[in-house]
Fold each of these.
Amino acid sequence: MFILSKLFWIAAQPLSLAFFAIILGLVASVLNRRRTGLVLSLAAALILFVTLFTSAGTVALQALEARFPKPEADPAAVSCMIVLGGAFDTEVTTSRRSIDLNQGADRFVEALRLAWKYPDARIFVSGGDGSLSGAYEGDAAVSRRFFASFGIEEGRLIGETSSRTTFENVANSRQLLAAAGLHRCLLITSAFHMPRSMGLFRKAEIEVIPWPVDYRTGGEVGLRLDLTQPSINAQQTSTAVREWIGLLAYYLTGRTSALLPGP
């Protein structure tokens, strides 16, 4: 299932869809199926236009980010926090033996802030190597070096190193959390990723407190033309499409109880 999901996403992301539509359109034209070729070419142009030159992706991400608002103040006490992986560039980190963060870095920046503020809190990191090759060091392993470099005691850390997907994050963490006696932990992940994550934790009957970070939108963007940043628009759209597909897939397969989990 993991490999199938990876291969599906390679083909299903917006720019890939546009590419395949162009190729199929050319093939159709060569085979004298000009009308089919024209339809496919127009579909590719529409996908590219929406992806590159509108705020559609940002609007779609915004809806996810608004689902679980972050509390205005820190809690009075924190006994534990769960940090979902996805914040390290695992390929670069592994090949260079370094600690290289990606766009999801806020997950660990926030965990570090809370670790300093609540010195007795345990830190549970869930994340293995999510690549197809399986050749890289996962987030849970890298995070030990990350936290150690900022003076966080290793005894406070618990790592779940085998998960490759959000579903596996939750499934593989359940017994480890119970064995460590950790309950009602803060759940730290990207705001757009929080609905799917909360749906999985609820289905697994693990009580957590959502603590969203890594916002990718300003929160008040409307649907409009945006000709100034096509590469960023493409990234926003790709992230949004992937997350919405994940929500739908998990709901249809019974892994979550709601299509769009909320508070």
Amino acid sequence: MEADRGRNNKVRCAVVDTNVLMYVYLNKADVVGQLREFGFSRFLITASVKRELEKLEMSLRGKEKVAARFALKLLEHFEVVETESEGDPSLIEAAEKYGCILITNDKELKRKAKQRGIPVGYLKEDKRVFVELLD
């Protein structure tokens, strides 16, 4: 089900994955703006994912390098949270700990989050955010 423009108050916080942050620049999608329209007011990124973006900025070239740099600039609007785990598990840990939805285009990560009862969201091909809320 698509998010209902803020009428559902259960989920107000979003943990965002690297692939979504990179997609924002590469595909000119206003993910944060769309999530705000849906009533989300708190955006989290794990320290692990921030480090991953910093490494990508150093190692990538061309558009991807610029996308990583843009994503790091976008993080000025995010809370960086520490987790015990690294990488994808850190996103699941943060979503559980803070009661957030997980926004990712990683199919395996979405599957794992759903198994743990974490609501997920992702970007569709038309650049719109699709949010699957749990009942």
Amino acid sequence: MAKRPIRNNRPSRRKPLPTAEVTISQLNDEGVGICIHEGKELMVAGALAGEKVLVAIEYSGQRRSIGQLRRVLEKSPLRRTAPCKLADRCQSCALIHMNYGAQLRYKQARLKQALAGYTALKDLQPLPIWDAEHPLGYRTNAKLALSKERGQVHIGLYRRGTHQVVDIEDCPLHHPLINRIMRVVKDEIQRQKIYIYDPQTQRGLLRYLLVKVSPQTGKAMVTLVAAERNYREITHLAKWLVSKVPEVISVHQNINGSTGNVVMGRETIRVLGVPDLIDQVGDIRLRISPSSFFQVNHEQASRIYDLVRSWTHLDRTHTALDLYCGIGGIALQLAKDAGDVTGIEVVEEAVRNACENARMNHLSNCHFRAGDSAELIHDLAPGSIDAAVVNPPRSGCQAEVIEALAGLAPATIIYVSCNPTTLARDLDLLQAKGYTVTDLQPVDMFPQTVHLETVVRLRRNV
């Protein structure tokens, strides 16, 4: 009788990844170093243009490969020591290895490159980019993922291109209060043995930690995103957090029972404290709820609001429109000068905040409507608007919004963009509809990252 082969139950060792020495030719739009290796584009996060690097090839496709930076063999003069010990693991801040002046030049060049893709825009010259006075510690809003590995709770950001949570205790971009809250929550989850949601088994409770901070008041709002409604663990965690960090004045539970990657569900319950966070930008006070969006860099947001107000040149005889208005920050600035301002926003809770903000700032000439900009804009009569501001998401304006906006024929359009690519596309459409770009002001809203804010003024051709 033949003997059965002996099974080796020890896990097989992974084969080492193949390595290569390459020279990076440039950075792509995501701030990732690229070069041609073995006839394919090789992407290497953390490498700078002109650097010779040793990489491990962790993925090789038909047209593109991904390399893991192992060592910089010949450094770029633009390289600096990253102000974050987790920069290579996290990879959320693509430009953090680059000195700040070089970051600004990269962003200015990226904007020019986007404009150059359109014949009508290729000769436009943006104004010099506004740098940030504080390129670290500026983020007042954080969405943090939770996981548990080998019995340890991890709170942080997803590693670039993965669902692996990089455990963070002191992110240099976060407002210091966010980092304090993060540490206290992590310790208490570990102490209480609260179950962390596992997307593979779809079991567990806590999914995300959301923190919003008002730098003006030094207070914070915390939202604990859970897979299901829970009272005992969430309430105990909230009470512990408030006792350890008294600056937290509002704690909510959001219920997200979906199996996808969406961060928040539709239902939010107040657990402790006040319902909203009161913030202030310039002389405008703003009420912020758990699900409403607001800019994460207050200093740069304030500069943008002032610029928009000065570029519109409104007085009490003028009417203004603010599309994608959020909680009303820009609309309220315009209402200080204009006779009447209308804001349109699709998120109903943000509109609730916007209406409350108008009352709180005693601006009765500012009105808000909840709904899709592409639909509600058609309720406005042509010629009824003197100035319009659009502040769309990264996807830009819908084509029907551009069409309808041009039909209203405002003398001035201010476009506040967070994506140079969709900005260029929409500016090309607006110029074809009878508008001319007169000013482009890039603003570094998110230092250490590739993201760029741009404010553009367009005038209607007479």
